[in-house]
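ping. complex inputs:
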Amino acid sequence: QVQLVESGGGVVQPGRSLRLSCAASGFVFSSYGMHWVRQAPGKGLEWVAVIGYDEIVQYYADSMKGRFTISRDNSKNTVYLQMNSPRADDTAVYYCAKGRGSLLHHFDSWGQGTLVTVSS
Amino acid sequence: DIQMTQSPSTLSASVGDRVTITCRASQSINSWLAWYQQKPGKAPRLLIYEASSLESGVPSRFSGSGSGTEFTLTISSLQPDDFASYYCQQYNSYSLTFGGGTKVEIK
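pong. complex structure:
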């Protein structure tokens, strides 16, 4: 069955960088778009970014553009989120999610999430 | 960005009740809408996609309807396992967006 396992979360100081990883298994990774979705404490879900099956096409939520970079390595079945210059309001649980299709779709599988706390 | 507005934000109901949650889009999204259930401390779970298609393994008491800008999620007979938060999500544009969520509480 599909498994998505996030790692890399923790406490990071404002302005420092952090890279999250999501290891995927149980499906043909190179055929599906992969997403990051976040949830601040006590708040709702917020889509962060998507990367297409081809490792090339990317789209971002406006508030993340220029600060976060999504990437993937199809040879390693892994998707990444590079967080540059994080702010306190980036504190959230970050979920990796598999899209139903190759790019912009709903999410049919989710990881367990990794908590990122931005604090000095 | 397409804004998604869910109502109500909180709903108190009893086991056996019929429950309806509404989601409105700021512009037409055709039928590109999904519904998710989330329990505290857990990842969301896909319930409905393309506005009315039931995801495999989801109980048939869940149903979705609508198109264009107005959508509903209905639980025909609320069960104890259904007390949770529910979110709609549109995937009609290059920027995906969620509704603010509806928390279904025990009355």
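Chain A touches chain B through 21 residues (CB under 8 Å).
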